[in-house]
Amino acid sequence: xxxxxxxxxxxxxxxxxxxxxxxxxxxxxxxxxxxxxxxxxxxxxxxxxxxxxxxxxxxxxxxxxxxxxxxxxxxxxxxxxxxxxxxxxxxxxxxxxxxxxxxxxxxxxxxxxxxxxxxxxxxxxxxxxxxxxxxxxxxxxxxxxxxxxxxxxxxxxxxxxxxxxxxxxxxxxxxxxxxxxxxxxxxxxxxxxxxxxxxxxxxxxxxxxxxxxxxxxxxxxxxxxxxxxxxxxxxxxxxxxxxxxxxxxxxxxxxxxxxxxxxxxxxxxxxxxxxxxxxxxx
Amino acid sequence: xxxxxxxxxxxxxxxxxxxxxxxxxxxxxxxxxxxxxxxxxxxxxxxxxxxxxxxxxxxxxxxxxxxxxxxxxxxxxxxxxxxxxxxxxxxxxxxxxxxxxxxxxxxxxxxxxxxxxxxxxxxxxxxxxxxxxxxxxxxxxxxxxxxxxxxxxxxxxxxxxxxxxxxxxxxxxxxxxxxxxxxxxxxxxxxxxxxxxxxxxxxxxxxxxxxxxxxxxxxxxxxxxxxxxxxxxxxxxxxxxxxxxxxxxxxxxxxxxxxxxxxxxxxxxxxxxxxxxxxxxxxxxxxxxxxxxxxxxxxxxxxxxx
Amino acid sequence: xxxxxxxxxxxxxxxxxxxxxxxxxxxxxxxxxxxxxxxxxxxxxxxxxxxxxxxxxxxxxxxxxxxxxxxxxxxxxxxxxxxxxxxxxxxxxxxxxxxxxxxxxxxxxxxxxxxxxxxxxxxxxxxxxxxxxxxxxxxxxxxxxxxxxxxxxxxxxxxxxxxxxxxxxxxxxxxxxxxxxxxxxxxxxxxxxxxxxxxxxxxxxxxxxxxxxxxxxxxxxxxxxxxxxxxxxxxxxxxxxxxxxxxxxxxxxxxxxxxx
Lengths: 282, 306, 260
Known about the structure:
- The structure holds 3 protein chains of 3 kinds.
- Chain A is an all-alpha fold.
- Chain A contains 10 helices and no strands.
- Chain A has helices spanning 18-41, 73-109, 111-126, 129-140, 144-153, 156-172, 174-181, 186-222, 234-241, 250-281.
- The longest helix of chain A is centred in the N-terminal third of the chain and has 37 residues, at 73-109.
- Chain B is 77% helix and 0% strand.
- Chain B has 13 helices and no strands.
- In chain B, helix 5 runs antiparallel to helix 6 (127-141).
- Chain B is flat.
- Chain B starts with a helix and ends in a 7-residue tail after the last helix.
- Chain C folds into 2 domains: 1-76 and 160-219, P-loop containing nucleotide triphosphate hydrolases (Rossmann fold), CATH 3.40.50.300; 82-158, no CATH class.
- Chain C is built from 11 helices and 9 strands.
- Chain C has helices at residues 51-59, 85-88, 95-105, 110-123, 129-133, 142-154, 172-189, 200-206, 224-229, 234-242, 245-253; strands spanning 6-18, 24-36, 40-44, 67-74, 78-81, 160-164, 192-197, 209-214, 217-223.
- The two termini of chain C are 17 Å apart.
- Chains in contact: A-B, A-C, B-C.
- Chains A and B meet through helix 3, helix 4, helix 8 and helix 10 of A and helix 1, helix 6, helix 7, helix 8 and helix 9 of B.
């Protein structure tokens, strides 16, 4: 094939500095570890209150200081990270299921089904999810179940669109059509041809969707509408410590930083995976 | 053909609005009895019944729904349970305050996002490109309340440059506006940069170079319009986010806008106000979507019905 | 009229690319040729022969990552017509804008652009100019898009015009029309044209001279008649042999030998 030389400057493939990727992976690994074992390895139980030790700055005894109720911030972080990540992850998976199933159905069957589902996908993008989430949480309570449900509603349409496109391209592809023509049952076709092809794009989409779930949960809990005491989440820690900003900034900055780092790390990972996937496909 | 597309879009918009209205109605009615929060704890049942009848809460659910819809069509958003004025009036009174920070935030984020995005996108692989990209990734992952907190700590508490609460002066808008503007600006920067990079490698750009079109003319008149679609999508989101997203920032800075009102009304189970805000926000989001759709068509003649 | 109307001289031109593993690869090696006003040179070869690289080098459109050695001197400006007109034109703008942009780049004041643009479109033999001037690229047929592209290139007043496979994507009838238009430009406007093509019969229709490229080297040069009737190099012989007998007769009968 001819070495097609473009006249415009060739776009240099986005270099993913290895060190950045390594740091992101480390953060993700730590997060996963804390998420899985949080409750088991936290230095102190969640309800421990030490009213004589309120608002202490970081020290050898209290690595990250204490909050307005004298609770050790470092210890609370274990619970908070676990809660926040579990909720965000569950919401992401739920969102992925909704989007995947709806988008897949639309893409596979086409025609009327597609029109109807696509209509609702578009309607969904017009709905201000955040505002609805606020409302739902207030009236239905900030239980994890409601929170997960509400978070899952935000963003499923993006996953649905991608799934629909992928399924459509697989469905129309030569080998699937001929497989079906040969009389292979639809179930087998779906299982052996369709699903494996979806794994990569879906994994990428889910990874990319995760950060916003954590960010939104934090915002909701910050407003006092998400996770409520005695349970705690990263956003809840930030929200409850808000008034002590001037005197005990660590109460707020530590969980805030955690939110930032986790969503950043996962975002970088997602970008990298997407890059790899596109590179392999093209 | 054109009529059909317009009709579909209108149907979509109406469906969105109707779904949202219904959802809100249901959710709000399912829990939280406003009467209980109004009257003292040990009020006799007759008083409670009296208030129920007063607010029409004794009728069956579907009746309340229909009444509500009818009221909406008349422009009556219901009366707040806590304030003598109608819900619409209450909400409307708060809108200027929200716009006071939301509009400057939108302008700032769009200018920053486009500016840095185009600049970075026009020099592929350069140091500037990488710096902009990394900074943008960082800010995009930053929860806006964290940014606000840091700003308050540094600029407000330590340096005393700007007031940290209330809306007394122009100076007090500075931090809320920056807090609202930076994360969307970061996202817009990334999208613009990526989109510009892609557009610059289009064959038509090579042709532009061949007919000796100057560098910045190529970037602005040839590449940018071809990169416009994803950019318009994000700008559309940001515009829609204007109204919907101020809640957190307003809570943080004690800003008396619509977002703050929403949170308060939610806590008090003030149905009418909550519903009113949700509907207004949904309608504006729907309008913004329609505008974005039109914008796509204006930019790209291939999308026009032909 | 100066006796020597050479507009382009290439001496020992070599373009080298650096491969990802660090080694150097010569895309074209030691190319020497000349082009005169009013004559068309067809550069023929298969994919990978380096003919496009050569064209881009002459037009100054190489990416900066490639290194060039040897010398190149030209008189006047070089115009480049891309192979795929549909992709080269800006998809978002009308035909008239495409030409007006080229005029703008030449410094033509706004007030004069529209009129001049219309006249260039007419020179490119766009029929019903006022109507097609308002069309977008996706509304143009292959041949029309080619003409709009040509108009935009001509608006730069090039003394050397490079046409990259101008006819490959077209049907036979349109091919013939475009070919004769290009020939007319060479003869009437005294443009020096470099025609990149893999198709010898098209070369014969338009060009006076042929340069044969094979794997980055210039293996044979000469007038169309010479190359067709007495090919020297093995590769050229193969190329000529590949042209169907009757086509060869027909084209060489009408071959351009610089006299018309």
